[in-house]
Design brief:
The complex is a heterodimer of chains A (about 140) and B (about 260). With about 140 residues, chain A is mostly helical. Chain A contains eight helices and no strands. In chain A, α3 packs antiparallel against α4, α4 runs parallel beside α6 and α5 runs antiparallel to α6. Chain A starts with 12 loop residues before the first helix and ends with a helix. Chain A is globular and about 40 Å long. Chain B has a domain of about 140 residues: Substrate Binding Domain Of DNAk, Chain A, domain 1 (Sandwich), CATH 2.60.34.10. Chain B contains four helices and eight strands. Chain B has a four-stranded antiparallel sheet with strand order 2-1-4-5, with no helix packed on it. A four-stranded antiparallel sheet of chain B has the order 3-6-7-8. In chain B, α1 runs antiparallel to α2 and α2 packs antiparallel against α3. The chains are: A mainly alpha (about 140), B alpha+beta (about 260). Chains A and B meet through α1, α3, α5 and α7 of A and β5, β8, α2 and α3 of B.
Chain lengths: ~140, ~260
């Protein structure tokens, strides 16, 4: 994975950004920190991003899910499935896009099978695409 | 976490907290209700009791609470001595349960806590083979579990784990591991052996990498945790004991399955 230079920040920024993500009172700052953690390219950021999956603001949750997809965190499967089950169609689509980016791993079959029977047509379409990616057909 | 940053603790290899699980009927359909299983009254099931020697691993078997229930949600919690949840560690969903009557499914749910303080949870449906697992780091931020040698232990495990992965997956994780060590060296001082000092941030990074390695390497079975436990006991038998370990500490080994 190519690591992006996020404003010239150093390697030590993962814990610092993580603390902003978990402690800031501004949802915009929390969402920004989640995006920045995704852009840092270090899978160690998942220690902080996993907590943001349950943030009170949907925009922060969406940014955290995007970042997890960007980092291709395989260990996120169970937690993303739990978030999926509690989320509305918009966030479910964000989750499926993240699953598509992570790409492989039988652990994600659960989310894909849930999404394949989702009442939302767009969610089902993303599930089909994710299943194809999982089987290597794209 | 900031209060514990760069904190060095001198504690033995046992956990100070009760760690348990709450099991809920998962929402496998939109707008479906999430109902607790038979464990009512806000009680959890303690799988690793305070005072358990590390590493500890235990699994129990659960079942469904309604007909055609297709998912469960497992919440890993810290508990008080009377099994009341006192804080959420993490949660995950196990979808894909067998489509049967209430009480028919057999779902094994287990926890393990290793010497590095990494808490692993897994759930598996015996009938369908559906399985989900999650690793949690950071318990040491809330208790005295961060042993001085926890980071060295974790770093050795991460290095060995990366070596076992397919070559394509190794480079990125090795870079992450090196970055974490670089951060620790810059911020936390150096031990006599040339290793970075134990700190919550470093331990969290290493534990997260350990979880990622597990996820990429494939499933770990309860037998793997038993093997770790046996190795640890063998090490103790040969004279390596942890300084200050409580003489009366309870030992939680692998528990009964079912």
């Amino acid at each position: 994975m190519q690591r992006k230079d996020y404003g010239g920040q150093a390697a030590g920024d993962v814990p610092r950004l993580g603390k902003v993500l978990l402690l800031s009172t501004s949802s915009e700052r929390r969402a920004g920190a989640a995006r920045a953690l995704g852009a840092r390219g270090s899978s160690t950021a998942y220690a902080y991003l996993r907590h943001a999956l349950w943030d009170s603001e949907e925009s922060v949750r969406a940014s955290a899910i995007d970042a997890i997809g960007e980092l291709a965190v395989h260990q996120s499967a169970g937690e993303l499935a739990a978030v999926y089950a509690w989320s509305g169609p918009r966030l479910r689509r964000v989750i499926l896009r993240a699953v598509q980016r992570i790409g492989t791993g039988a652990a994600f079959d659960g989310i894909i099978s849930l999404a394949s029977i989702d009442p939302d047509r767009r969610v089902r379409a993303l599930a089909i695409r994710a299943a194809h990616i999982r089987r290597g057909r794209f | 976490m900031s209060q514990t940053e760069n904190r060095k603790a001198t504690v033995p290899a046992w956990t100070a907290q009760n760690i348990g699980i709450e099991v809920f009927a998962g929402r496998d359909q939109p707008h479906g209700a999430a109902r607790a299983t038979a464990f009512s009254g806000g009680r959890a099931v303690i799988l690793i009791a305070a005072g358990a020697r590390l590493p500890a691993a235990r699994a129990m078997t659960f079942t469904t609470v309604s007909d055609r229930q297709r998912a469960i949600e497992v919440r890993v919690v810290r508990c008080t001595a009377d099994a009341r949840p006192s804080g959420m560690v993490g949660r995950f969903l196990l979808p894909g349960l067998c489509d049967g009557a209430r009480g028919e499914a057999r779902i094994d749910i287990g926890l393990s806590l290793d010497l590095g303080g990494v808490l692993r949870a897994w759930a598996s449906d015996r009938a369908t083979g559906a399985r989900q697992e999650a690793s949690f780091a950071g318990l040491w931020a809330l208790g005295p579990e961060l042993r001085p040698d926890a980071c060295s232990q974790l770093a050795r495990g991460v290095d060995a784990g990366i070596d076992r992965l397919p070559r394509g997956a190794q480079a990125a994780l090795r870079t992450d591991r090196d970055e974490a060590e670089q951060r620790a060296r810059a911020g936390g001082g150096i031990h006599r052996g040339g290793e970075p000092a134990a700190s919550a941030d470093y331990a969290t990074a290493l534990a997260t990498l350990a979880g990622e390695i597990d996820a990429r390497a494939g499933r770990r079975e309860l037998a793997d945790y038993h093997r770790e436990l046996a190795d640890y006991r063998r090490e103790q038998f040969h004279g390596t004991t942890w300084e200050g370990a409580p003489k009366t500490g309870r030992e939680t080994g692998p528990g009964p399955r079912g």
